[in-house]
Amino acid sequence: MAITSKERVLLTFAYKKTDRIPCWCGASPEFLMKVQKNLGLDEEGFRLRIGDDFRRVFSKYKGPDLKISPGCTWISPFGIERKGIGYGQPVKHPLSKAKTIKEILDYQWPEPEWMDVSRIRQESLSWSGKYAILGGEWSPFWHDAIDLVGMENLYYMMYDSPELAKLVFDKITGFYYKVSENTFEAAGDVIDIFFIGNDFGSQNGPLIGLKQFERFILPSLLKLIQLGHRYGLKVMLHSCGGYRPLIPLMIKSGLDALHSLQPKAYGMEPSALKEDYGNQILLNGAIDSQLLIEGAPETVKKETLRILKIMSPGGGYISGASHDYILEETPLENVLIMFDTILDYKISTL
């Protein structure tokens, strides 16, 4: 008897045998437009074509009109304006000169009620229980703190004024916590995975040391993990870069899954991750996105098979690219051959 994508994913989280390795696909709007143009498929049609086992639901902003300055392309609920490619880069850091608790408390922090969660239950139910549903706020509290304070300033603040740094993280995390709580109150029984994202690694290693991570980052991460678990959800963290030294603390905090595993970042070799952590936390990704962009189709197929052979034994692995977004410049043929290779991978090898 065939199993659903939802069942396949949940069995994988439980390290139990499935009919095949689950597939994951995160794709940029620009890439999906290319799919529409070349294959004549909308987003749902494309996900069906590649066997994507996940669907995602989002809250919608309904708060005050956020005025964007000329030349800027995006503004966050925290009032951070950005410009440039994609979400761009912040044009200023409004808390960069904050020296007192009052200055931080007086900042115009967003209200959780600005995010509309009323449609999430209906959207989740529209897939009739067939897919693993990702929900909750992305919660990039680390990035928002960097945007508000400035990266260099934030590092200094964590050492010179730790009470201010903690307050900044608390205010940001509190917003995401409450919005996600509202989501789970409305639809937690039809959502499977609380999916959050913060990039804690660079190409050459973690962006923050272990002591500072444990003191300033882990409390926010733990709060979000405990929220997801309170509603019976698995919690999956996306992080780019080489953050291997932080993984034991993430596991200790109760995190259920890591996404997207950049194999060329420092310390993120797939075989070592599988050997050291594969039976402690689910691993998602590791098929090199750079190779997807630059490689020939046969090279992509060969690398996909290599990663599947490393990561699939014993379960606890979801297959997909090593970045949360497949970018527009990625050849469509390479993406299709990656997913076709995953779908064709024989269950006898699991």
Write structural notes for this entry.
With 350 residues, the chain is α/β, with parallel strands linked by helices. It has one domain (5-64, 95-349): TIM Barrel (Alpha-Beta Barrel), CATH 3.20.20.210. The chain contains 14 helices and 14 strands. It has helices at 5-13, 29-39, 43-50, 101-105, 120-125, 141-149, 151-160, 162-187, 210-230, 247-252, 270-277, 289-294, 297-311, 332-344, and strands spanning 54-56, 60-61, 74-75, 81-83, 89-90, 115-116, 132-135, 193-197, 201-202, 205-206, 234-239, 257-260, 282-285, 317-318. The chain has a seven-stranded parallel β-sheet with strand order 1-7-8-11-12-13-14. It has a three-stranded antiparallel β-sheet with strand order 3-4-5, with no helix packed on it. α11 links the parallel β12 (257-260) and β13. α7 (151-160) packs across α8 (162-187). The longest helix is centred in the middle third of the chain and has 26 residues, at 162-187.
